[in-house]
Write a structure and sequence with these properties.
Largest sheet of chain B: 2 strands, antiparallel
Number of helices of chain A: 9
Organism (chain B): Cryobacterium ruanii
Bound molecules: adenosine-5'-diphosphate, magnesium ion
Subcellular location (chain B): Cell membrane
CATH architecture of chain B: Orthogonal Bundle
Strand order of the largest sheet of chain A: 6-9-10-3-11-12
Mean pLDDT of chain A: 86
Keywords (chain B): Cell inner membrane, Cell membrane, Membrane, Sugar transport, Transmembrane, Transmembrane helix, Transport
Largest interface: A-B, 32 and 29 residues
Low-confidence stretches of chain A: 1-6
Low-confidence stretches of chain B: 1-15
Order of helices and strands of chain B: HHHHHHHEEHHHHHHH
Oligomer: heterodimer
Helix content of chain B: 55-70%
Radius of gyration of chain A: 20 Å
CATH class of one domain in chain A: Alpha Beta
CATH architecture of one domain in chain A: 3-Layer(aba) Sandwich
Largest sheet of chain A: 6 strands, mixed
Distance between the termini of chain B: 42 Å
Protein name (chain B): Xylose transport system permease protein XylH
Strand order of the largest sheet of chain B: 1-2
Number of helices of chain B: 14
InterPro entries (chain B): ABC_transp_permease
Radius of gyration of chain B: 21 Å
C-alpha cells in the first residue's frame, strides 16, 4: 500500500515481491520495499531471517530469482557489485571490506586509487589521497590520529565510519549497511547511528540492516520486517511503535512462551 | 614544483614516531642482519672484502635476489610458487636445446622460452584460482612435472643431462652482452646480473609502494574477499604475480646459461625454498599481505654473503643449511613481534 502513494519521483531503489532461492533453499520471498533520497530504510529480522540475502540482491552480489528490482524506476538485474556501484549503490558489508594490515588511506581508496601520469608511468597520488582521507573523515566527524596506521588498529566503530565515509566520498546515492552496529558497544553503536544520520542529511538513501529495534527506531524512516525469509510488512515510522516492532520480530506468542518459561516458579 | 602540503601535526602521535615508523617497515630486520653478517665475514676472513670476494658474493646474491624479489611479490599477494626454481632450468634447457640441436635463431629461442615460462605461470594461476586449492600444492605438482620433464626430455634429445656447444651458436656473443657480460667497477669485475638484480628490486619497490597494482597486490594477499568487494580484479593480479615469478625464472635461466655457456637438467632444483626463505627473512609474512621487495633483496644478500663467506672461512659448507634454518626461525619470530607491535587487531 505504501507504493500506491509514491510521487512522481521514483525512489532510488525499489523491490517488488522480490525473492531468492539457493538451490532448494528458499532464503527470501515476496519482499517489497523502497528507499528514496534522504531516507533511511531499516531492515529488521532475527538471525537467518534473510537480511543478508536481501542486501546481496540490492548490491549486485546475488541475482534475485523472483520479483523485480528497480533503480530510479528502471527495472534492473545486477550481474556484479560493480554494476550496482556504477549506479551509486554502495554496500558496506559486515566484514567492512577492508584489508586490516593496510594503512587507512590505502583502504579508503582501494579499488578506486587516484593516479597521476600516463600509461605504465602513472603512479599513486599518495599525498593527495592521504589529505582527502583525512578531510573526508573529518567531514563525517571522525578525527583520526594518523591515516598511515593499519586500519586493523582502529576500533570497530571507527572502521565502520571509515567504510561509510568511503562510500559517501565515492558518490554513493544509496549506502547499504549490513549490521554495522551488531558487534559494537553502546557508545560506538551510537556514533555509527550518528554517521547514518549525517549521511541521510547529506541527501543519501540509507539501507540499514540490524536485528536491534533500539538501533533502528531512532534513525529509521521506514521499517522492513523480515522473518524466516518472508516480509512481515514495510512500515512508516508513524505506523508502528518500537514495542510492536519488537513483538512482530520475535513473534508475540514466542515471547509470551519465553516469559512464561523464565518466570520464577 | 616543490609544492608541499601543510604538515598536519597531531599531538596524539608519540614524538618517538621515527623508531615506530622504522619498525613498521618490513625490511628493517633483514637490514640489521645483513650488516652484522657483512661485518662478521669482513673481519673473520681475508678474502671477503677483496674486490674478487665482493664480486663473488654479489653475483650469488643477485641470482637469488631476482627470484626472491619476484617470489616476495607473489607472497605478498598471498601465494607460493614452488616451481620457480625448476623454471630456471626449464627455460635454460629450452633455449639450449632448440638452438644447439635444432638450429633455431637464438633471439627467437629467448622469446619462445619466455612465452612458455609465462604460459606455465598463467597455468599455475589459473588452476589455483579456479579450484581454490592452495598454491603450495598446485605449484608443488608443477615443480615435479618440470623436474621430470627437464631430465627426461633433455636425455631424449641430447642423450646427456646437459647442453653442449652453446657458445658456438650464432649470435651467442650478442645475447651474452645482456645476460652474461661483466663490467669493471672500483676494480671489481661485476657481473651484469647484479645490475638486473638492483633494477628489478627498484622496479618492484616502486610498483609495490607507488602504483595501483602494488596496492592491489597487498590487498589480495591481505584480504581477498574485501578486495573483490571493492572491485580489485583479483584474478588479474594473481595471474600477473604467477607470471612474474615465471618470468623471473626465465631471466635467471638466461643469466646462468649465458654466463657459463651450459645448463644442467637439474638446474634450479632445490632452490625454490631458498627464494621463499630470502623473502621471509626480508619481512614477508607467510600469510600474505605484508612484506617488501627491498627486504627480499636483502634476504638474498644475506644468503649470498653467507654462502661465499663460509667458503672463504673454509668451514664445512654444511653449516650453510644450519645457518639458513636458524635465520628463518629468527626472521619468523621477528615478523611475529613486528606484527604485534603494529598492533593489528584481528
Ligand atoms: N549462499 C547460501 N547458500 C544456501 N543458503 C543460504 C546462503 N546464504 C544464506 N542462506 C540461507 O538463507 C537464509 C537467510 O540467510 P541470511 O540472509 O544470511 O540471514 P540473516 O542475514 O538475516 O541472518 C538462512 O536460512 C541461510 O541459511
Ligand atoms: Mg547477516
Amino acid at each position: 500500500m505504501t507504493h500506491a502513494e509514491a510521487s512522481a519521483v521514483p525512489p532510488i531503489l525499489e523491490v517488488r515481491d522480490i525473492g531468492k532461492t539457493y538451490g532448494s533453499i528458499l532464503a527470501l520471498q515476496g519482499v517489497s520495499a523502497s528507499v528514496g533520497v534522504g531516507e533511511v530504510l531499516c531492515v529488521l529480522g532475527d538471525n537467518g531471517a534473510g537480511k543478508s540475502t536481501f542486501i546481496k540482491i540490492l548490491s549486485g552480489a546475488h541475482v534475485h530469482t523472483q520479483g523485480k528490482l528497480l533503480a530510479y524506476g528502471v527495472e534492473r538485474t545486477f550481474g556484479s557489485p560493480r554494476e550496482a556501484l556504477d549506479l551509486g549503490i554502495a554496500t558496506v558489508y559486515q566484514d567492512l571490506a577492508v584489508v586490516p594490515l593496510m594503512p587507512v588511506w590505502r583502504n579508503f581508496f582501494l579499488g578506486s586509487e587516484v593516479t597521476r601520469g600516463f600509461g605504465p608511468f602513472s603512479q599513486l597520488d599518495v599525498k593527495g589521497m592521504r589529505r582527502i582521507t583525512k578531510e573526508e573523515l573529518a567531514r563525517m566527524g571522525i578525527d583520526l590520529r594518523d591515516v598511515d596506521q593499519p586500519i586493523g588498529t582502529l576500533s570497530g566503530g571507527e572502521r565502520q565510519s571509515v567504510a561509510i565515509a568511503r562510500a559517501v566520498y565515492f558518490g554513493a546515492k544509496v549506502v547499504i549497511l549490513d549490521e554495522p552496529t551488531s558487534a559494537l558497544g553502546v557508545k560506538q553503536a551510537g556514533a555509527v547511528l550518528k554517521y547514518i544520520a549525517q549521511a541521510r542529511d547529506r541527501g543519501l538513501g540509507v539501507v540499514f540492516i540490524t536485528h536491534n529495534p533500539h538501533h533502528a527506531y531512532p534513525v529509521g524512516d521506514r521499517f522492513l520486517l523480515l522473518k524466516r525469509g518472508t516480509s512481515l510488512g514495510d512500515f512508516k515510522k508513524s505506523e508502528i511503535t518500537i514495542e510492536e516492532m519488537t513483538k512482530l520480530m520475535a513473534g508475540a506468542a514466542e515471547l509470551d512462551a519465553l516469559a512464561h518459561e523464565l518466570a520464577r516458579p | 614544483m616543490t609544492l608541499t602540503a601543510p604538515a598536519v601535526i597531531d599531538e596524539r602521535i608519540k614524538p618517538t614516531g621515527l623508531i615506530q615508523t622504522l619498525l613498521r617497515r618490513p625490511e628493517v630486520g633483514a637490514a640489521v642482519a645483513a650488516l652484522a653478517i657483512f661485518i662478521f665475514f669482513s673481519v673473520s676472513t681475508q678474502a671477503f672484502l677483496t674486490p674478487a670476494g665482493v664480486a663473488t658474493w654479489l653475483y650469488s646474491a643477485s641470482l637469488f635476489g631476482i627470484m626472491a624479489v619476484a617470489v616476495a611479490l607473489l607472497m605478498i599477494g598471498g601465494e607460493f610458487d614452488l616451481s620457480a626454481g625448476a623454471m630456471v632450468g626449464t627455460t635454460g634447457l629450452i633455449v639450449g636445446i632448440i638452438t644447439t640441436e635444432w638450429g633455431v635463431n637464438i633471439w627467437l629461442a629467448l622469446v619462445i622460452a619466455l612465452a612458455i615460462a609465462l604460459a606455465i605461470g598463467a597455468a599455475n594461476a589459473f588452476v589455483v584460482m579456479k579450484t581454490g586449492l592452495p598454491s603450495f600444492i598446485v605449484t608443488l605438482a608443477t615443480f615435479f612435472i618440470l623436474q621430470g620433464v627437464n631430465l627426461a626430455v633433455t636425455k631424449i634429445i641430447t642423450g646427456t643431462v646437459s647442453i653442449q656447444g652453446m657458445s658456438a651458436v650464432p649470435g651467442f656473443d650478442a645475447v651474452k652482452v645482456f645476460f652474461g657480460s661483466s663490467f669493471s667497477l672500483f676494480g671489481m669485475d661485476m657481473k651484469i646480473s647484479i645490475v638486473w638484480w638492483l633494477a628489478i628490486t627498484a622496479l618492484a619497490t616502486w610498483i609495490l609502494l607507488r602504483t595501483r597494482s602494488g596496492n592491489w597486490i597487498f590487498a589480495v594477499g591481505g584480504q581477498v574477499t574485501s578486495s573483490r568487494q571493492v572491485g580489485v580484479p583479483v584474478m588479474k593480479v594473481k595471474m600477473g604475480l604467477f607470471m612474474t615469478t615465471a618470468g623471473a625464472g626465465w631471466l635467471v635461466g638466461m643469466l646462468q646459461l649465458f654466463d657459463v655457456s651450459t645448463v644442467q637438467a637439474t638446474t634450479g632444483i632445490g632452490q625454490e625454498f631458498i627464494y621463499i626463505i630470502c623473502a621471509v627473512v626480508g619481512g614477508c609474512l607467510l600469510t600474505g599481505g605484508y612484506g617488501s621487495a627491498i627486504g627480499a633483496a636483502l634476504g638474498a644478500l644475506i644468503y649470498g654473503m653467507t654462502l661465499q663467506g663460509i667458503v672463504f672461512a673454509q668451514w664445512d659448507n654444511n653449516w650453510l643449511k644450519a645457518f639458513l634454518g636458524g635465520m628463518l626461525l629468527l626472521a619468523v619470530l621477528v615478523n611475529l613481534y613486528v606484527r604485534r607491535q603494529a598492533g593489528v587487531r584481528s
